[in-house]
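Backbone shape codes
____________________
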Amino acid sequence: MTDLRQVFDDLVRFETILWGAVDGRLQDECGIGLASLNGMLVIDATPLCRVHDIARAIAITVGGASQAVDRLESAGLCARRANPSDRRSSIVELTPKGVELLRVAAPVFDRELDRLLRAPLPGTALTHMADALSTLRRSAATQAVSSAAGGASKRS
């Protein structure tokens, strides 16, 4: 039988090692951290991106995403503009400086992922791991929503 505690430890420790290695490489070569790059990648990939979209994509709170956007904005990497279809929210866009940094940093990110994920896993192992992680992430998100809904009804 698979030791789930060991699976948990391996998954969490690997994530810590992976994040540290990628973050360090990005800092050294591009002067940007992985957390900032993550936000920029979401902004770049999401038409009419809102803070809520960033929070959902990265699985963080809206408050955390808003603070991340504040930091990117302070660094001149993104800008907010009024959302024409919803005055309560803003659209977040990369600035020309942000677009240029993303152009330089994305290949560094991709090379590190290739080195740390693709290189050590033979053949279809990476595909199987990606499928399993995607399934686990969807399941956890569904369970979190169900738990939150159940908690809300208990408080009522």
User: Anything to note?
Assistant: Helices lie at 4-30, 34-45, 51-58, 62-74, 96-118, 125-155.
